[in-house]
Amino acid sequence: MAQQLLMPKATAIWLVDNTALSFDQIAQFCRLHPLEVKAIADGEAAQGIKGLDPIATGQLSRDEIARAEKNPAHKLKLSEPKVRVPESKRRGPRYTPVSKRQDRPNAILWLVRNHPELKDAQISRLVGTTKSTIEQIRERTHWNSANLAPMDPVTLGLCSQIDLDMEVEKAAKGRPLPTAAELGATLQSAHETERLTPHEREVEKEIDADAVFAKLKSLKSSPKDEDEDDQY
Questions:
Q1: For residues 133 and 143, what is the distance between their CA atoms, to the nearest angstrom?
Q2: ∠ CA 120-125-131 to the nearest 5 degrees?
Q3: Which is nearest to 101 in space by CA: 128, 131, 138?
Q4: How crowded is residue 5: how many other Cβ atoms within 10 Å of its Cβ?
């Protein structure tokens, strides 16, 4: 990622006010037109903008400014940054090295089989392919379908495990809950579980609550009766 100057116009204002650099040098460094730098120096442009010190931000050194002041033909150069900011991810299909492009069909087949919830756009982002290729592999119409073998794209180095997990998680959130038929097991209805034979229904009707409690009372009193018998 090419290093870029922060706030070019504010930097130009500071250089005009605090250095003896020429308009051409400032314009080249800040990527402005020399006439625009002249207008800044005359107070006709960039009014209300506070100057930004490029030395304080680490984008320019005092020695570099001194060299440019001594030599009008010297072009200012940005200082090397002390901290490297990672490049932001570009949206769109992932770039795949030429050496690994032959492995993409195998990775697509693995994703289609192991993660059917993934959409074509998600697979395209993971392995850097096209929707037509994904459809051909899904429908087994790919020219090399007979020789394809499912292979993990992470193992092949086509994507990272973090990216794969994120895409799977996104797909899982938008996926509807499985129905009972898809799970392959259903609970029986209450009507079916309560099916009794005529004999069982007759027995159930004959059960009397008073008779049950009377039997329980007799069981509780039986130990006492045994004690009384022992006394005699």
A1: 10
A2: 35
A3: 128
A4: 18
The encoded tokens of residue 112 equal 């289609």
Q: Which two tokens stand for residue 29?
A: 């460094």
pLDDT digit string (tens) for 117-138?
899 999 988 888 888 999 999 8
Binning pLDDT at 50, 70 and 90, where does residue 74 land?
very high
Gap between the Cα atoms of 137 and 143, Å rounded = 9
Q: Give every CB contact of residue 99 below 8 A, 6+ residues apart in sequence.
A: none
pTM assigned to the model:
0.39
Token pair in block for residue 62: 């005092």
HSE, side-chain direction, 13 A CA sphere, residue 171: 18
Written as six digits, the tokens of 198 are 């005529």
